Amino acid sequence: MRSQWLTLGLGFLILGSVWLTSTQISTLGAGCAGDRGPAQAPVEELSDVSRSRTVHLCICSDDPDFRPAVVAIRSAVSSSPQSHRFVFHFVTTLELSTRFLNVAKLQLPGIRVEVHADEELQQAIQSRILFRKGAGRKVLASPFNFAPFYLPHFLLASSQTFHTQTERLIYFDADIVILGDLAQLFDMDMQGKVCAAVPYCHQRLKTYINFDVLHSLGHEGIDPDSCIANRGLLLIDVQVWSAMKITESIENWLDVYRASDVDLWVGGMSQPPWLLAMNGNYTRLSDDWNCNSLGRHSMIPAEAAVLRNLGFEDTHLQELHVEPVANGLNPYVVLCSSTGKILHYNGAMKPWLLDSDTISVPVCTLPESLRAPQADQSKLMLEPVLAASRALVARGCDRSGSASQLAKGATTSTVTAQKSAAGELPQASAQATSTDPDVHACSTAHCAAQ
């Protein structure tokens, strides 16, 4: 029981930290719009699809630590007035499926969850993966890093709610906290595209793809300067995805990578082949729907240049304890968390992986001029929060002023991650039932209510 409360407690604490961070950065991210490239589709203006259909939300993971997945699911429910439409699909190994089923019953009451495992498909995916040193972390070679490209296959084999006629699904990484309404995202006009994702123009396709190798293999028509997209959140049109054979295209790129004597791509495993297969054919979402890079240790020069353009001067960086290093700035400074609907801890410094001794580390360092007036402090309190964190929350930031002043109020992703224990997750949405959870363990052999 103690471990269960610790797990829930840590999950609760992450969202409080996220809320605190989001009140401190203001609208700096808006200054990046000119550097993004193609315009983003405004979700709130394009909701022309029926609001009654089931919203399928998917996570793929073989991580035995279920805390981030539980937090992602709970935060999605608590952030949506339409959570009664949600069905969560957790795709994992056969061994972990039973464990997650038990966790879901205990920690996700009133939430519809289906747990899927397919060993044959898992092995088929694994057979296509070749890990090379230039790819980065070995964990990226997991078949569950590629499983999002096979979601219809996993779900059709065992789901009680997902069918061949199902039009859409949303995939998201487990290392996120959701502050926006995913039903609103689900209902948007996708403009006939395969999927919707958030572009990231601080990095270009040539950052990952070796175009000399690509051209030598006879592949043309791909722009090396096009923005990449982070697939930590994907809204997928299942029918268009299937018709355009995106999964098959990704498999073809994996085969090309395996057959090449020289690395076709670096710095990733599943992201590069997906980017090549999509080749820009996706609906652009705003930064709000995937505010990423939380927990990253440093910013590359191109990313650091954006800070300079927004008014960050050396004195501001010093106040944030951000230091110039050979490859940019350390640690990473997050610009979009003030408006983020999804906060993505895709850096190596995950809040739930830190020792509890780090709780004493300040969540942010703020210039005196940006601290909220005493009269406004009560408005910035998030109830309930840990007593040890109340003073930090009360310090909140003044969200007005010039770009230079706003730069002073930014927080760093590393420090944010260190202070993940700042408050509790909101209670589940009123739409969620108070009865036992509707949880199902699914495999190719069975899909029985537990």
TrEMBL record:
GO molecular function, one term: metal ion binding
Pfam family, one: Glyco_transf_8
Region (Disordered): 417-438
Signal peptide: 1-20
Top-level taxon of the source organism: Eukaryota
Alphabetized Gene3D superfamilies for the sequence: Spore Coat Polysaccharide Biosynthesis Protein SpsA, Chain A
Keywords for the protein's UniProt record, in alphabetical order: Glycosyltransferase, Metal-binding, Signal, Transferase
GO cellular component, one term: Golgi apparatus
PROSITE patterns, alphabetized: PROKAR_LIPOPROTEIN (PS51257)
InterPro entries: Glyco_trans_8 (IPR002495), Glycosyltrans_8_dom-fam (IPR050748), Nucleotide-diphossugar_trans (IPR029044)
Family statement: Belongs to the glycosyltransferase 8 family.
Protein's name according to its UniProt entry: Putative galacturonosyltransferase-like 5
